[in-house]
């Protein structure tokens, strides 16, 4: 077996999500100290902040905790509902500013932006229609452009919008419509390979077609058998995760080797952050998976 081609433009990391962390504070989640200890032990150099408030929000304290473990932050994350129009801007900006300030203080350069859910991920309640009106699409795209401009001007960060299951930016059609309707100078994409596969998309095709818009990667795989049942029964995303729809690589789809190779061919430096959704999970489960996943990614050249 020949050695894989080194993926020297890909910076691999992990995130609280791979430790079952979805909320700032939840008794079913591992304490933040344990997450930091274990993500370093598993061999990752880069992490995301996760839900704001899970890791320490005092920049000095956070910097000390990261330095002790030789960890560096790649991005912060925010949730937005900009399709609702200008009325939500002030509240959105207050939340974004909080996260962006901490993200900048860590030295990171990216802010991952996730659209709001149309279906509650716990109760399955339908919160809004899954399809936006033309007016809502205009609010969404113009709002994201405004957000990209303001975040860059104020905090020096680039926003990368994350297509996500049970949001209005999910399927191939929705992702392409969003990209075709936004300015690449202001808005680019965080391609999550698992969410895109969950919604029927082809990550390699997207990278090859819209390469200049790929600003960041989340690495994740879907179990096709579980996904088929989830789709057939219209299971919301949260319960789907509890059924194991997001699985440990390399057992699911898409194949991550070809995705990483396609990303390498873009010729730009890209973060590729492992996110294996598994909230809630037993506290001893994440570390062995993280170790195996890091080993697997090294076998791919990353």
Automatic annotation (TrEMBL):
<dbReference type="Pfam" id="PF01261">
    <property type="entry name" value="AP_endonuc_2"/>
</dbReference>
<dbReference type="InterPro" id="IPR036237">
    <property type="entry name" value="Xyl_isomerase-like_sf"/>
</dbReference>
<feature type="domain" description="Xylose isomerase-like TIM barrel">
    <location>
        <begin position="36"/>
        <end position="298"/>
    </location>
</feature>
<keyword id="KW-0413">Isomerase</keyword>
<dbReference type="InterPro" id="IPR013022">
    <property type="entry name" value="Xyl_isomerase-like_TIM-brl"/>
</dbReference>
<dbReference type="InterPro" id="IPR050312">
    <property type="entry name" value="IolE/XylAMocC-like"/>
</dbReference>
<protein>
    <submittedName>
        <fullName>Sugar phosphate isomerase/epimerase</fullName>
    </submittedName>
</protein>
<dbReference type="GO" id="GO:0016853">
    <property type="term" value="F:isomerase activity"/>
</dbReference>
């Amino acid at each position: 077996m020949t050695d894989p081609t080194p993926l020297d433009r890909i910076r691999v990391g992990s995130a609280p999500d791979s430790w079952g962390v979805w909320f700032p504070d939840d008794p079913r989640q591992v304490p933040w100290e344990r997450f930091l200890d274990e993500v370093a032990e598993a061999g990752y150099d880069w992490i995301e902040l996760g839900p704001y408030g899970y890791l320490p929000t005092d920049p000095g304290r956070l910097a000390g905790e990261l330095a002790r473990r030789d960890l560096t932050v790649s991005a912060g994350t925010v949730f937005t509902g900009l399709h609702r129009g200008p009325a939500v801007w002030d509240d959105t900006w207050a939340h974004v500013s909080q996260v962006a300030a901490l993200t900048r203080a860590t030295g990171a350069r990216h802010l991952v932006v996730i659209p709001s859910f149309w279906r509650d991920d716990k109760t399955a309640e339908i919160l809004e229609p899954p399809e936006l009106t033309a007016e809502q699409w205009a609010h969404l795209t113009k709002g994201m452009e405004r957000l990209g401009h303001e975040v860059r001007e104020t905090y020096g960060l680039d926003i990368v919008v994350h297509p996500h299951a049970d949001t209005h930016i999910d399927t191939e059609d929705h992702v392409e419509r969003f990209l075709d309707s936004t300015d690449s100078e202001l808005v680019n994409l965080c391609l999550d390979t698992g969410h895109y596969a969950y919604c029927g998309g082809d990550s390699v095709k997207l990278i090859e077609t819209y390469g200049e818009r790929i600003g960041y990667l989340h690495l994740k795989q879907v179990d096709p058998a579980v996904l088929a049942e989830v789709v057939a029964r219209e299971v919301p995303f949260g319960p789907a995760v509890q059924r194991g729809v997001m699985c440990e690589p390399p057992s699911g789809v898409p194949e991550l080797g070809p995705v990483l190779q396609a990303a390498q061919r873009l010729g730009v430096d890209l973060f590729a952050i492992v996110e294996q959704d598994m909230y809630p999970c037993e506290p001893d489960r994440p570390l062995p998976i993280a170790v195996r996943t890091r080993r697997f990614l090294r076998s791919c050249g990353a």
